[in-house]
Amino acid sequence: MADKIDAKFTAHASATGGRNGHTAADDGLVSVDLSVPKAMGGPGKPNTSTPEHLFAAGYAACFGGAVDFVGRQHKVNAAGAKVSAAVSIGPREGGGFGLSVVLTVEDPTIPQATLETLAQEAHEKICPYSHATRGNVDVTLTIKGG
Fold first, then answer.
1. Tens of pLDDT along the chain (146 residues)?
2. DSSP secondary structure letter of residue 134
3. Fewer CB within 10 A of the end CB, N or C, for the chain?
4. Residue 26, class by beta-carbon neighbours within 10 Å (0-12 exposed, 13-18 middle, 19+ buried)?
5. Strand 97-107 and strand 138-145: pairing?
6. How far is CA 44 from CA 21, 84, 111, 130, in A?
7. Spatial separation of the C-alpha atoms in residues 37 and 48, rounded to whole Å
């Protein structure tokens, strides 16, 4: 059973047309046309996005915030850490489709071992995307410190 949360903010978005349609946040700040990539048998229309792009952007931003938060707890300035998320989609052994994620955390100003500690703690204890994916999505951390 999932932990209950005390919601402080709720984002609202909707999509029409599925993976070959349009999605937007209700406040209009996110608004993108979508199309299935050619690699997945879709039209791969130019200037379109995918749900995986949106998930990757959200996870990278959220994880970066978690690394910064943990850094402050350890008196390490991790505000400049760059987090990249690579989100892959493909068929699952049990049928349907699944995701996998590679998160890369880079900050040459933080020693490798320290950055590894911050990223691992952010992944295990802080980041809500990591909590949501745990046990459901293969997430790999790649750390590049100084």
1. 677 999 999 999 999 999 999 999 999 999 999 999 999 999 999 999 999 999 999 999 999 999 999 999 999 999 999 999 999 999 999 999 999 999 999 999 999 999 999 999 999 999 999 999 999 999 999 999 99
2. T
3. N
4. exposed
5. parallel
6. 12, 23, 41, 29
7. 9
Strand order in the sheet with 97-107: 82-91, 97-107, 138-145
Q: For residue 57, what are its two tokens?
A: 């952007």
Give the separation between CA 17 and CA 35, rounded to whole angstroms: 10
Instruction: Write out the two tokens for 23.
Output: 């999605």
For 65-131, the DSSP string reads HHHHHHHHHTT---TT-EEEEEEEEEE-TTSSEEEEEEEEEEETTS-HHHHHHHHHHIIIII-HHHH
